[in-house]
Write a structure and sequence with these properties.
By secondary structure, this protein is α+β, with helices and mostly antiparallel strands. The protein contains one helix and five strands; from the N terminus they run E-E-E-E-H-E.
Length: about 60
């Protein structure tokens, strides 16, 4: 399973913040609990643009 490194730590090698790490969930559960790793989502790599239906309106002078 893939994880996103949230804090620098040493595992089988040195991992730095923002890297992807692939590991067995049972081996890294303690790191997940402490917030060192987070489950990797494909959304973490992609930037998405969100369209809104809200229109900008100008304030009418009184």
């Amino acid at each position: 399973m893939k994880y996103l490194v949230k804090r620098v730590h040493f595992g089988d090698r040195m991992y730095y913040e923002g890297e992807e790490r692939e590991a067995n969930p049972n081996d890294v559960q303690h790191l997940l609990n402490k917030g060192v790793l987070a489950e990797f989502l494909d959304e973490n790599k992609e930037t998405k643009q969100v369209k809104t239906n809200q229109r900008l309106t100008k304030a009418k002078p009184e």
